[in-house]
Design brief:
single chain, alpha/beta, Rossmann fold, eight-stranded mixed β-sheet
């Protein structure tokens, strides 16, 4: 479907997507907020499948290696290799509002990416807020990227590097691409798969206007996640925090994916526009009715998005 007003009209939403959204609202409305029960309790609930996300099924193909990050911090990397000889490495960064989530909680998705794109998938177990606020998480992702640039040929037998992530992971992937360019002079990423990322932590209009409908991510959720991640930051428009405000020249091709029922809709629309205006190749995929996180649930819209993302990653590898 071509980008235009028809994407955003109610009749563009297929019945299965509408039913999924209604089910998500019904499931999430009675759940306690993580900031009331503590981040630790909320994380454990996710591991047990209490809430909208099913309990993780760990892959027998996954292994963990540990690298040394800034100031000697140990950073676990979860590695899932493709079944065939790898064509590259995909640096994956998980979502969860910089507070929740884990590198080992989406093995099924990582296996799909590995097998469909021919890449070794390396997911970063970065430190989480509020225990470890900014810049701990971005520092760990930067360290992982720098380690891969230096070691992936020896460790995995290939030297093509892509990156991506969902939600906060999309934000951290964009920050990592920028840090690698600015701090290491590295412009070798083949592509960035940025899935409903948060790119303006000062809040876009869609973030502010979304309100309290509990369709996965509300305005108050965004505010609470950002407060945990940035407790002592006065200016949230600093490019290292909000990459929408960065100099975006000289970056890799990117695919921005987002649903029309996502509070972070503007983030992808705006970032896509700035990415292209800076002279970079980019694609924008907008999915009618897609809520925040829609790619993480079994549904037809997720299948379409996954097929396009896998195709994008294959394409940038050549």
């Amino acid at each position: 479907m071509t980008f235009g007003p028809d994407l955003f009209r109610p009749e563009a939403i297929d019945p299965d997507t509408a039913r999924l959204n209604e089910a998500m609202i019904a499931l999430m409305t009675p759940l306690p907020d993580w900031w009331n029960i503590s981040a630790a309790v909320a994380r454990e609930g996710r591991r047990l499948g209490r809430g909208p996300f099913p309990a993780p099924v760990l892959s027998p193909r996954a292994r963990t290696i540990v690298i040394e990050g800034r100031d000697g911090v140990a950073i676990p990397l979860r590695v899932i290799a493709p079944r065939d000889p790898p064509r590259g490495v995909y640096l994956h960064i998980h979502g969860g509002g910089w507070v929740l989530g884990s590198a080992e909680m989406q093995d099924g998705m990582l296996e799909r990416i590995a097998d469909n794109t021919g890449q070794v998938v390396v997911s970063v177990e970065y430190r989480l807020a509020p225990e470890h606020p900014y810049p701990a998480g971005p520092d760990d992702c930067e360290s992982a990227a720098a380690w891969l640039v230096a070691n992936m040929a020896r460790e995995f037998g290939c030297d093509a590097l892509t990156t991506g992530g969902e939600s906060a992971g999309g934000h951290l992937a964009a920050v990592t691409v920028l840090r690698m360019r600015d701090r290491y002079g590295y412009a070798g990423f083949r592509g960035a798969n940025l899935v409903y990322g948060a790119f303006d932590l000062a809040m876009t209009p869609s973030q502010r206007a979304f309100g309290n409908t509990r369709l996965v991510l509300r305005t108050i959720d965004i505010q609470q996640f950002a407060a945990a991640f940035l407790p002592d930051v006065a200016d949230r428009r600093v490019p290292d925090i909000s990459p929408l405000y960065a100099d975006l020249k000289g970056l890799c091709p990117a695919l921005f994916s987002v649903g029309t029922k996502d509070a972070l809709l503007d983030d992808s629309l705006f970032m896509y526009g700035r990415w292209v205006a800076a002279g970079n190749e980019a694609e924008l995929a907008v999915y009618p009715g897609g809520a925040h996180g829609f790619t993480l649930f079994p549904n037809g819209l997720a299948d379409k998005a996954s097929e396009r993302m896998d195709g994008f990653l294959r394409g940038v590898l050549g």
